[in-house]
Known about the structure:
The chain crosses the membrane at residues 12-32, 44-62. The protein is mainly alpha-helical.
Amino acid sequence: MLKSRESNPNRKFDQGFLGIGAILGALLALGIDTHTPDLLAVDVMTIALWLSVGAAMVISRFNQGRWE
Length: 68
C-alpha cells in the first residue's frame, strides 16, 4: 500500500532533487538562448548525471532500499 505524503521519509530529499532539476533546466534554457557551447556541454553532462542518480534512487525505492 502506498504511504501518505506526510509519512514519506525521503520528502526533503525529493524536494531538493527536484529543485536541482529545475535549476539545471533553467541553465539549459539559458545556454540554448545565449548559444553558449561550453555552458550547453557542461549542463548536458550534469543533467545526464542527475538523471542517472534519479534512476538509481527510483530502482532502490522499488527494491525497498536494498541493492541486490
